Amino acid sequence: MASKTGSATGNTLRRLRPWAVIRAAIWGLSCVLFVVNLVSNATSESESAYPLKPITVIVPFNTGGESDAFARMIQHAAAQHKLLGQELVIQNIGGAGATIGSGRARKADPDGYTMMILHEALLTAQSSGKVSYGAESFEPIAATGKTRLIIAVRDDSPYQTLSEIMAAAVETPDQLVFAANLGAPVHYAGLILERQLPGSAFRYTQTGGGAQRFEAVVGGHADVSAFSLGEYISYKAGGLRAIAISAPQRDPRVPEILTAREQGFDFVHANMHFWWFPKGTDQAKIDRIAKLLEDCMETDIVQNQLATRLSDPLILTGDKMHDELADRISKIQSVDSASPDVLPNIPLIILAATGLCLAGMMLPMFKLFLGMSPGGDRQVQTEMEDGEPLLSGNDKKRYWATVTKVALLTTLYILSLEYLPMDYRWLTMGFICLFGIVIGPGGIVFRRLRPFPIFVDVVVLVPFWIYAVFQSGLHIELP
Question: Among 139, 231, 280, 473, which one is most buried in terms of CB atoms within 10 A?
């Protein structure tokens, strides 16, 4: 008997050993990464001289647009004149109307080594409901450059003026395609024009940054779009034609372009590039980068390139920058309040999809309680293999209690991800833990199983590894 018992124990250990090794390796790697992260943060926090390493500049658009060109211009000036002592590293994280990149910048460590360049798309995305955060989630550093917007069509378009295309938008509403980055300033340019002429309506298509909008217009996929003056100068030879500029009077550098005001539309707007640090960044580091930007704007490199791109070499810091920011927020909010909501309710869609998935998961159990097999036939089996009843008298009540708890827990989790300024990893860890308590040991589904070690592994490791894969590998923003 003892021999059989020992043999059984040995077999069990042999079966468990591979999993134990794998489990130990996963925990070991996770602990090493955690310690490295702590040491890195502690080192950066103790630094007295700033910067001691390269600074990442997040451009939340793909390469080739106005923001990307401006960031690389500053990068070049800082390197050529040795204004920083460290390198500025441009990181393009485009997608979702700049919200993937801005979300990643918002969640970056406020150590002064990650900043972002983004115009008022940060403000319009919040105002339109595309994201729940805005300028209040960042530390503004400076506002640089000043360039007007150009309303442009393909060079062989039948519309010669802004008045003509707006008249067509009245005659055939929702037919003219306006290439835009939904929720971004270009989108708002179209909304402002619509508000100027009652009855007019464009059909907006999510396109992306300046390079993508240019391709959409000249490729015949869109009828009209808006570009910065610098973008228009770059793309003009490729087949663009301007029909209006958002200036109070004609720009002497492009005197042939009529203003929107000349054509009866009170559309005056100038784009500026705002630079942002994550919330909580030390003021001394903000001041250091603000000084860097001021120095860069004074260099011949920047002055010449801005002149070529027909952009004013303006820089605002301190109170003037905050006043400019407040004025733009006020104007954007006034436009949005009078504009139709053309953006989908993303949180509601996610909530509905999650609800459907949960319903699908619970349906087989529901049929089981009705005495049906998952395929729909009358359930025949009523006992487990060991003779224990498959369903007890209180199973139905416990089942519905579990369904209700899971639904409420999932709803709370999704709403927390959307509206609470909390890290995805901690929220997900709490969600998995509570989910396991509801349906795990002692729950209706797994009441006979108590895999506590595996439960701990899942709760602790899964959120962190998912976060690492999405953030570092796929560059997909998680809260």
Answer: 231
